[in-house]
Design a protein that fits this description.
With about 375 residues, the chain is mainly alpha-helical. Among the domains are: about 60 residues, Orthogonal Bundle (434 Repressor (Amino-terminal Domain)); about 70 residues, no CATH class. It contains 22 helices and no strands. The model has no long low-confidence stretch (mean pLDDT about 95).
Length: about 375
């Protein structure tokens, strides 16, 4: 990461001090990141990317093609790309789609695979289902048929995001909006705005992300009252909390966390409502994340010690939280604990963690922090491609 930042900085004919000023970060932080002495936080990556007029994935190096080829995941992306392009071509006369209830079951199965971090299996099955669901929606249009198609687009977003294909994840969200409109489903549309706001969170465009949260809230106002709408509203509050925290507005972040907490008392653990994993656990996990985004790493570590992950919680969410804790532990000087957390996250979600830029940055920081690298860390570094 540091090397890539330095390369782009030199292409823009900027000194470290000039880039730091443009990105509104400290010169010492930038210098240490470029040297590999400090891991770059998501906020720093986003700020530097905007100052250099590049995408965050240009700095993180995504997609990680060497590892994707090793895992034979690279060959699964093109079929997804092609299936996304079929959305407006109507029914394929060579396809006899299954009944919509069977397609719904198949779409839910893919969502479960993603939450279980079986990315490769989901990516292998998705294009055929997406193609079949496209024909079903066009040949026998109904609200449920369009909802199923929207679900396949949501899975395409999940896969492409986790593997670092930022261009495709945006296309998938556009397709999801297209299908949700035809389904006349305000909750699906609101969930799509939440996912879209997370894209802007990653790119450092916080104000746009906040506007999308507002649009999502307005859209959900058209939905029927009940748990499904409450879960979507609660998740939007969590997204808004992350946007506020990363933009330096801790007070607003805390307000959104409090709002989400109140909603979660009503919904309980709702891990399969649009597969958002909303509930008291997710609120607690986001509390940790918002503290870390404000560089309150010691507080984040203490808050994480109070979090209890249910045994049936999705592995994808649990691993992401543990990786976040590992980053905070590194910053407070608890290197051994950080490495153990990373190993735990790897055990839970190996495919997801291998392609997570924050995991790579944390591993880089751990390597820098050790005068002699233990075998477990060397293994971890090789595994993520360092």
């Amino acid at each position: 990461m540091g090397e890539r930042i330095a390369q782009y900085r030199k292409l823009r004919h900027l000194t470290q001090r000039e880039l730091a000023a443009r990105a509104h970060i400290s010169y010492s932080m930038l210098a240490k990141v470029e040297q590999g002495a400090k891991p770059a936080t998501p906020a720093v990556i986003a700020a530097v990317a905007r100052a250099l007029f590049v995408q965050t994935v240009d700095l993180t190096g995504q997609p990680y093609m060497t590892e994707l080829r090793q895992d034979e995941l690279d060959v699964l992306i093109q079929p997804i790309r092609e299936a996304l392009d079929l959305y407006d071509l109507g029914a394929d006369p060579d396809i006899a789609p299954r009944p919509v209830d069977e397609l719904h079951t198949a779409a839910e199965h893919l969502c479960a695979l993603i939450r279980g971090t079986h990315i490769k299996d989901a990516a292998r099955e998705l294009p055929a289902l997406m193609t079949e669901a496209t024909t079903a929606a066009h040949s026998t249009p109904s609200a449920k048929a369009w909802q199923v198609l929207a679900s396949t687009y949501r899975t395409a977003y999940d896969i492409t995001t986790k593997l670092g294909y930022s261009d495709l994840c945006v296309v998938a969200l556009d397709r999801m909006a297209w299908a949700a409109e035809r389904a006349s489903d305000p909750v699906l549309a609101g969930v799509r705005q939440y996912l879209r706001s997370i894209v802007y969170l990653r790119s450092g465009q916080f104000e746009l992300g906040k506007r999308l949260v507002g649009v999502g809230m307005d859209t959900l106002g058209q939905a029927d009252t009940g748990q499904v709408r409450d879960v979507a509203v609660g998740q939007l509050h969590l997204g808004a909390a992350m946007l506020a925290a990363r933009s330096g507005d801790g007070e607003t972040a805390a307000e959104h966390i409090a709002q989400a907490a109140r909603i979660s008392e009503v919904t309980g653990e709702a891990t399969q409502v649009h597969w958002l994993s909303f509930g008291p656990t997710n609120v607690a996990v986001h509390q940790v994340a918002t503290l870390a985004e404000q560089y309150k790493y010691a507080e984040a570590v203490r808050a994480a010690e109070r979090v209890r992950i249910p045994a049936n919680w999705p592995a994808s969410r649990a691993a992401a939280h543990i990786a976040e804790v590992a980053r905070a532990q590194l910053w407070v000087g608890r290197s051994e604990a950080s490495l153990k957390s990373l190993q735990h996250a790897r055990t839970l979600a190996p495919q997801q963690m291998r392609y997570h830029p924050m995991v790579r940055e944390t591993v880089t920081g751990l390597v820098s922090a050790h005068r002699s690298t233990p075998d477990t860390l060397t293994n971890m570094a090789h595994w993520v491609g360092i």
